[in-house]
Amino acid sequence: MPRYISILRGINIGGKRKLLMTDLKQLYREFGFDNVVSYIQSGNLIFTCNVTNTSFIENSIAKAILERFGYNVPVLVFSSVEWKRMTSENPFSTHDINKLHVSLLKDLPTEYDVEVFKSKYFTPDLYHLNGQYIYIKCDGKYHQSKLSNTAIERHLKVEATTRNWKTAIKISELLNE
């Protein structure tokens, strides 16, 4: 059965939109998803299911969270193959892991918005845009970066969520278990 990763944006951050992972895992099981595993409290879940349409899975999860918990939460779903490819293609992988992040885009931005984004200066931080992923190498702390999730969404006009590289790698490791 195919394995997927769902990444929820903006839950359990600063005490806002609080969702227990046990409640989310139960919700996923009610959908018929199997082998549901969560990693940390920020909405990273791994599961198996027979459905292959990731947009359908995303919309179903988002709708159920809204109905049950009252939160309108963007949900991004990736196949295990997509996730492993994403973690293997980081052009900054030889750098300090504590400085690395990945922004996951819900949709592909338009070519125009990508060109506008590329014209911006985010120094001293570096980035590499690769389809639905933006690999980020921060010079300082991520919360001080000009490449914040909010800036990415504003410039590319798509929903996004960002994870530190340690989380991305840990999820990849969990996929191998």
TrEMBL record:
> Would you say which domain of life the source belongs to?
Bacteria
Q: Which InterPro entries match?
A: DUF1697
Q: Which PANTHER family match?
A: BLL4334 PROTEIN, DUF1697 DOMAIN-CONTAINING PROTEIN
Q: What is this protein called?
A: DUF1697 domain-containing protein
Question: What is the protein's species of origin?
Answer: Carboxylicivirga sediminis
